[in-house]
Design brief:
Length: 219
């Protein structure tokens, strides 16, 4: 009888050993640190920033063919650009640098934290079911807020986790938060989400093999 007792002690130690406990993640932990960049708009007044933003938007619409140089809105944007230039603002340089920053930020939307790969984690979120086994959900998207991917555009890929849970669990609805525990992987995937008004393809930056799903209780 000594050996079973000793084995129980070993298993108990493993269960409470922090090295074997799940790392609790928050959603911001899934986003890589954004590199610092020089803000080209420092020193500009609020009115100047509004005018520059208006010019940028009109230029985008003009480039897409919505307006021509003869349209009043384009002429108005050109007048604002001349006024800013007279105030010492390099409009074209700022617009170019702003576009570069926007491209950089867009690229970061899909990047993941590589050090999370293979970690045993536990994190909260809301369930968007993908596959069922009878009444149990066996595959789903874990998202940070209610209605993500349904009523609003989907979050960036690094804010969606594609979860596989072969054992399945009984989902209590889209408005019930859960804790999900399992092994996370920095593996991109595409999932087809079935909606009332049609299907939607959702890109995810992480996948997870879940060990368990339980209702979230902040208390």
């Amino acid at each position: 009888m000594k050996y079973p007792f000793a084995m129980a002690l070993v298993l108990g130690a493993l269960l409470i050993d922090p090295a074997h406990a799940a790392r609790e993640l928050e959603w911001q932990d899934l986003m890589p640190e954004v590199p610092a960049f020089d803000n080209p708009f420092v020193g500009m007044g609020a009115d100047q920033l509004v005018d520059l933003g208006y010019i940028a938007r009109v230029r985008e619409l003009q480039a897409s063919g919505d307006y021509t140089e003869d349209d009043e809105i384009v002429q108005e944007a050109d007048d604002l650009a001349r006024q800013l230039t007279e105030q010492g603002v390099d409009v074209e340089d700022l617009l170019a640098r702003g576009r570069a920053i926007a491209v950089q930020q867009q690229e970061l939307r899909g990047t993941v934290v590589e050090t999370l790969d293979g970690q045993h984690v536990r994190m909260p979120g809301y369930v968007l079911p993908l596959e069922f086994d009878g009444e149990k959900v066996t595959e789903f998207l874990l998202v940070p807020f209610v209605g993500a991917c349904i009523h609003v555009p989907p979050p960036p890929p690094n804010q969606i986790v594609h979860v596989f849970h072969p054992q399945g669990f009984e989902n209590q609805g889209l408005f019930t938060p859960v804790w999900v525990e399992g092994t996370i992987a920095t593996e991109a995937s595409n999932a087809e989400l079935f909606l009332v008004d049609g299907n939607s393809q959702v890109s995810t930056g992480y996948t997870m093999q879940a060990m368990g799903v339980e209702e979230y209780d902040e208390f």
